[in-house]
Specification:
69% helix, mainly alpha
Length: 75
């Protein structure tokens, strides 16, 4: 955030990532961090949706990531 001048510009900088593997890893890590607190709240959901769009992550992959993480963090 400090490097890019704010949260919005930091998220936009994700669009500069060209490697599909790194794009997917960024999304998975962000979702994992969001789920670690127990559930994804509204602000985290909005952030993940924005990341998904900017990184070109398809809905099927994003849905599977969330499904797997929900299982991982189920109590």
């Amino acid at each position: 955030v400090a490097k890019h001048g704010g949260l919005k510009d930091s998220i936009k900088a994700l669009g500069d990532i060209k490697s599909p593997a790194v794009q997917k890893k960024c999304f998975v890590l962000a979702a994992d961090i969001a789920m670690a607190s127990g559930d994804i709240d509204e602000s985290e959901d909005k952030l993940l949706e924005t990341m998904q769009r900017l990184l070109g992550i398809d809905d099927a992959f994003a849905g599977k990531v969330i499904e797997v993480l929900q299982t991982k963090y189920a109590v």
